Amino acid sequence: MSVARKVTSYFARYSRKEWMDYFLSTHFWGPVANWGLPIAALRDLKKDPEMISGNMTGALMLYSSVFMRFAWHVKPRNLLLFACHVTNFSAQTGQMARFLNYHYLHIVEDPFYSAVAPPPTPLPTDALPLMAKV
Q1: CB 68 within 8 A of CB 86
Q2: CB 89 within 8 Å of CB 61
Q3: What is the pLDDT of residue 129?
Q4: Mean pLDDT by groups of 10 residues along the chain of 134 residues
Q5: Apex CA 36: angle with CA 38 and CA 43, to 5°?
Q6: What angle separates helix 54-73 from helix 79-100, to the nearest 10 degrees?
C-alpha cells in the first residue's frame, strides 16, 4: 500500500464534522497558541547567557513537565500539546545548562553566543529623510 493511500485512508476514517470539531476546539488551538513558548526558547539559545533567568527557566521546565504528563494522560491523548511541551522542556534544559555554565561552572565556551559582536554598520546619510539631515 502506498504512502498516499495510507494517508488518504487515515483521513477518510473521520467525517468532515469530526475534523471541524477538532480544528475548532481548544484541544487544537490551546497547543497551537502554546507553541510560542518553545519557539521563543529556541530563538533565545543564540542570545547572551547573562540575560537568562535561572528562576524563570526552572519554572518553565517544571511547567512543561507537568503539562507533558497532563497531555499524555488526558483522554483523548493530546499529542500536539505533548510535542509542544517536550520541545519546550528540551529548549529550557539547554537554557539552564547555559545559565549554570555561564554563572557557576565555566566548563565550556558557549557555542551559540559570541561576546565579540561585529560593530553595527552605520546608515548612509542619503537614506535618511530630509527632515533628519538638519
Answers
A1: yes
A2: yes
A3: 60
A4: 80 74 78 92 90 95 96 92 96 95 89 62 58 53
A5: 55
A6: 160
